[in-house]
Amino acid sequence: MDCLFCKIVEGELPSTKVLENDKVLVFQNINPEAPVHVLIIPKKHIASMNDIQDEDSQLIGEMHQAAKEAAAKLGIAESGYRLINNCGPDGEQSVFHVHYHLMGGRRLGALTGISPAHT
């Protein structure tokens, strides 16, 4: 498999780890778009949110728990943060291994493509 994130999980590519357990890895984004910008990935390869199966529900919950723990560890839990998943080409997914972006460390701008009535 030629998956960038699987190679990071396997240690074939370097990463700056923030948190890790047997199912989830949190590491620094190499192209941060905020003062704090980490990626939260499952160690199991799942291409996108559309590929999550019923048996993956607990794993997704563990990813959310890792986001909470990473936000606290990185000092942004109180001030706030954004947790983003991009799914598919129109959602701007660039690595096809399901992941969340956890971003914070400053006041983040409004989301684009969403009308104010939906924010």
Automatic annotation (TrEMBL):
InterPro entries registered for this protein in UniProt: Histidine_triad_HIT (IPR001310), HIT-like (IPR011146), HIT-like_sf (IPR036265)
Annotated Pfam families: HIT (PF01230)
Alphabetical list of PROSITE patterns matching this protein: HIT_2
- Give the residues annotated as active site: 99 (tele-amp-histidine intermediate)
Gene3D superfamilies, per database record: HIT-like
Give this protein's Gene Ontology molecular function annotations: catalytic activity
Q: Which residues form the HIT domain?
A: 4-113
Q: Which segment of this protein is annotated as the motif Histidine triad motif? A: 97-101
What name does the UniProt record give this protein? Answer: Histidine triad nucleotide-binding protein
Q: Which organism is it from?
A: Paenibacillus glucanolyticus
